[in-house]
Design goal:
The chain is an alpha+beta fold and 493 residues long. It contains 17 helices and 23 strands. Strands 7, 8, 15, 16, 19, 20, 21 and 22 form an 8-stranded mixed β-sheet that branches. It is globular. The two termini are 13 Å apart.
C-alpha cells in the first residue's frame, strides 16, 4: 500500500511536530525549511563562540505529570537526559529604589508585597488569591487524569472566578492602575512580555508555580535539534535551504509546491508558517481566510507581539542581576514609541551552554508591535544601522549605570529588530507570537483549512490567541489528528 505523501512547509515547532505526528501515523512526510537549520522562531545559534537563545525564556509543559509534557516527549523535545531548570521567580521588577518580585513561593511573595505597600492590602490579597485559584484551575486542566489528587479542586477554585473572569476584559495597564503603589503598578503592567491582557499573566503565574513553566537546559537550539533527530529517525525527509515560492493548486486542490524553482508534487500540503504569508504570497490571494482577514483588519485590537533584542556577554560574577530583571527606564525611544521598561535575562543558570571564559550571555528584550515594524521598515539602510547602534549603546549605558561593576566588561554579540525576525521566518510584522488577545478583543480560534481548497491545512501558533511554542505544539497535534482521520482512516475503510 502506497503511503500518502505530505508536504510540510516550515521546520519550526509546528512544522517539526506535525511532521513527526504524521510520519508516525504512516504518511510519507517531506519537510521544507528556508533556513539552514530547523527551529524557526524557536532558534538558537553561536556568535563568537557564545550561544544565543532567541526563544525560550520559559516553556509551558515541563511538569512531567501534564498532558503537554507527554506531547513534548512524543515529538522528541525532551528525553530522559534533558535537564529541566526551575527558576526561583518570574523576575524582579525594579522601579527606582523598589524591587517587586513574582516569586515561586506565593506566601513569601505576598508578604513581601504587603511590606512594600500596606495601603494596597486588599488588592494584594485578591491578586494572590486569583493566582492560587488560577493555578488550581490550570492544574485540573493540564494534569493527566490519574495525577489529579482532588477531582473537585477546580470547582473550589471558582470561589474567585468572578475576579479571574473580569481580568479577561482588563489590560495589564488598566489592572495595575487599581494599585496605589507605583512600584506595584510598574511590575503589574510589565509583568509579561507582549500585549495580552491580565488574565494571561494570571494564567502564566499559576502555571509557573505548578512547575509547568521551567527551562529545558540548552534552550531552543538543542530542543529543536532533538525534534529534528526524532523526525529523521522515523524515516522523514528534511530539506534545508529550501525556499518555497508557491503552493501549486489544480481544480481547487493543493497538489504540490514550487521550491528552489522546481515543482514538487504531493497528496497533502500543510503550511506551518505565517498564514498571511501563506495566503498572500504562496497562494497568490486566490484563497482567503475570513477570520484571519477580520483580525488583521482590527490589528489595533489584536496587536502583534514582537521585540527588539540585544545580546551581550558580561565578564565576571553577575549573580546580582536576577533572572530576569525588568528595569524602569526613562527618555528612551525604541521603534515608534517611548518605552518604560526593558527585560534583562542573564543565563548563568545554565552554565554548560551560556558561560564561557568567565563571560555570561545576557539578553535584553524590549516589547515591539506592528507600528514599530513599520517605523523600522521606513528607514533607509544607513539610518536603520544608525538607529540600531543608538539603541544598543543606550541599552548598554543603562546596564552600566544600574550595575557599575559591569562597566568595561560588556561585549556586544548581536541584535534583532522586528525586521530581522520577519526576514528569517516570513512572519507578519516580525511577530514572535500570534495576534494578541487584548482587553479590546475576544479570544479566537481559527479553522486550519481554507474555504474551497482541498488537501490543504494551516498549522501554527497563529491558530489561536496568544500563540507561542505550546500553541504551535497543540495546533500540530489537533491538525495532525484531523488529517489522519480524513485521509488515512478514510483510505483504510
Amino acid at each position: 500500500m502506497n503511503m500518502k505523501k505530505v508536504i510540510v512547509l516550515g521546520a519550526g515547532i509546528a512544522g517539526l511536530s506535525t511532521s513527526i505526528f504524521l510520519q508516525k501515523a504512516g504518511f510519507d512526510v517531506h519537510l521544507y525549511e528556508k533556513n539552514g537549520k530547523v527551529g524557526g522562531l524557536c532558534s538558537g545559534f553561536y556568535v563568537n563562540g557564545h550561544y544565543v537563545d532567541h526563544c525560550i525564556h520559559w516553556l509551558m509543559g515541563t511538569n512531567k505529570n501534564t498532558k503537554i509534557y507527554n506531547l513534548w516527549r512524543e515529538v522528541g523535545a525532551f528525553n530522559d537526559d534533558t535537564k529541566i531548570i526551575s527558576l526561583p521567580s518570574l523576575g524582579d521588577f525594579v522601579y527606582k529604589n523598589t524591587t517587586v518580585t513574582f516569586g515561586r513561593d506565593l506566601d513569601k511573595t505576598e508578604k513581601e508585597w504587603l511590606k512594600i505597600s500596606p495601603e494596597d492590602k486588599k488588592l494584594i490579597k485578591r491578586f494572590f488569591a486569583s493566582v492560587r485559584d488560577t493555578s488550581s484551575i490550570m492544574n485540573s486542566v493540564l494534569l493527566e487524569p490519574e495525577m489529579k489528587k482532588d477531582r473537585f479542586e477546580s470547582v473550589r477554585a471558582l470561589r474567585n472566578a468572578l475576579h479571574i473572569l473580569k481580568s479577561m476584559k482588563e489590560s495589564r495597564l488598566v489592572y495595575s492602575k487599581k494599585f496605589k503603589n507605583p512600584a506595584l503598578r510598574f511590575a503589574l503592567r510589565n509583568a509579561q512580555t507582549g500585549y495580552n491582557n491580565m488574565f494571561f499573566f494570571l494564567d502564566l503565574y499559576g502555571i509557573f508555580i505548578n512547575g509547568n513553566a521551567d527551562v529545558p537546559s540548552g534552550g531552543a537550539l538543542y530542543m529543536s535539534k532533538r525534534m529534528e533527530e526524532k523526525f529523521l529517525s522515523l524515516g522523514g525527509h528534511l530539506y534545508l535551504n529550501s525556499d518555497v515560492h508557491e503552493i501549486i493548486t489544480e481544480d481547487d486542490t493543493a497538489i504540490g509546491i514550487k521550491v528552489n524553482n522546481e515543482n514538487v508534487k504531493g497528496d497533502i500540503v500543510v503550511s506551518c508558517i505565517d498564514p498571511e504569508y501563506t495566503t498572500t504570497t504562496l497562494l497568490h490571494n486566490q484563497y482567503r481566510h475570513k477570520k484571519l482577514d477580520s483580525i488583521k483588519d482590527k490589528i489595533k485590537k489584536y496587536p502583534i507581539s514582537s521585540c527588539y533584542s540585544l545580546y551581550i556577554t558580561i565578564e565576571g560574577d553577575i549573580s546580582n542581576i536576577a533572572i530576569p530583571t525588568c528595569l524602569h527606564v526613562e527618555d528612551f525611544k525604541v521603534g515608534s514609541r517611548n518605552i518604560e521598561s526593558m527585560l534583562i535575562r542573564p543565563y548563568y543558570f545554565d552554565k554548560e551552554y551560556f558561560v564561557k571564559d568567565n563571560k555570561t550571555v545576557v539578553s535584553i528584550f524590549i516589547d515591539q508591535n506592528q507600528e514599530d515594524y513599520i517605523y523600522f521598515k521606513s528607514l533607509n539602510e544607513t539610518n536603520y544601522a544608525k538607529e540600531l547602534k543608538r539603541i544598543d549603546e543606550k541599552i548598554i549605558s543603562i546596564i552600566e549605570k544600574k550595575y557599575p561593576t559591569t562597566k568595561g566588561k560588556i561585549e556586544y554579540l548581536t541584535h534583532f529588530s522586528p525586521i530581522e525576525l520577519s526576514k528569517r521566518t516570513n512572519t507578519s510584522f516580525g511577530a514572535l507570537q500570534g495576534y494578541s488577545f487584548s482587553n479590546k478583543s475576544k479570544f479566537y480560534i481559527i479553522k486550519p483549512t481554507l474555504p474551497n481548497l482541498s488537501n490543504f491545512y494551516m498549522c501554527s501558533q497563529w491558530n489561536r490567541s496568544i500563540g507561542g511554542t505550546p500553541t504551535a505544539l497543540e495546533s500540530a497535534n489537533s491538525v495532525s489528528k484531523l488529517i489522519i482521520k480524513k485521509h488515512l482512516h478514510k483510505k483504510m475503510q
